[in-house]
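User: Sequence in, structure out. Go.
Assistant: Echoing your sequence, followed by the structure tokens.
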Amino acid sequence: MITGASGFLGSLVAAALLADQHRRIVLPVRSGAQANCLLRLRIALLDRGVHDADLEALLGLAEILELPARHSLQEMSSWACSHDIEDIVHCAGCVDYFDTKQLHLANVEFTGSLLNVAKAWKIKRFWYLSSAYCSGYRSGTIPEALHPDPDAADEPTEYTRTKRLAEWRVAESGIPFVIVRPSVIIGDSRTGEYRGKNYGLYQMWRAIEGLLCREYYPVWYTVAPPIPVNFVHQDAFQNAFLAIYRDLPGDSIIHVVANAEKSPTMRDLCWMWAHVYCPAEIHTYPEVDNVPLRSIPVRQRRFLELASKNFEIATRTWNFSTDNLRSLCARGLYFPDATLTTITRCQQRYIEGSVRIQEHMKNYCSRSNCKPRLVECVP
């Protein structure tokens, strides 16, 4: 049983298990989301490389059901027993940084309710999709273990806090578990295709499209320290999940994250974005708080304010332990790195779908082939 299959990561997991393992799966989704779930699954299978001739047979292995209210999950018990559910892969959750109530209901309370029925159903293993950033800001190596609460100032968001609380519930349930902690998932490494919502990197591009490309200024003020960013391609995530599913023992925690030595930096991404915005000069700062927000163009200020939390997280140095991931790679896991080349491919795919960005580039990038002048502003 896979929860959250009508969402981005849940559909990737479901497609991977169908295409590569031919597992029979059950997908409980909210009322009214059945059609969208089926469409997402169909597209995810095609993105995975499934041929049209094989598509219907694989979709026949999936059963989509309406999920009862959180406090009524017991209603599924008779159905679960008749279907002989072995594993639960819990991908459902809330990712809204600022909706505290919904974050706790979806990420903590619903996980607890699901664990209660899982025990009654005698589930063999519970897979929980968490977040690599649930540790909070830490200066040392971040272990593949449960995390204590950080100081309040070191908690990135309420989202990361609820993911950490849910991990503890999973670990304390008594059910054999695997906790998977991905970093930021972006488009396919081969095609650049992305089917998720505008979070993380895509929120940045959407803000560039909606704000910066509406009002051009020759000087661009942004945050771009030379710190590696941590992105994982969706096909790398799927490959990793399958390797985890096959080979990782119970009661394990794994970071599915990028190799910092191969990752581009925020400065690299700045040059990549400059290709879109086409400024004559770039003023870069280490953090949003260092930017003189009151004295810069209004839309640039709004862009920085909108993306401030993403900038805060991205400009931190994250030293994730990757012992489990490296072990799986040594046993044959193909995990394509997110490099400047592959991320540029994802950006180009985004540009191809944006008339506004194309028009902006036509108006401003054709005026000069000169590389923008970089001014590094240090507080």
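User: And one key feature?
Assistant: Residues 2-186+231-256 form a domain with the Rossmann fold fold (CATH 3.40.50.720).
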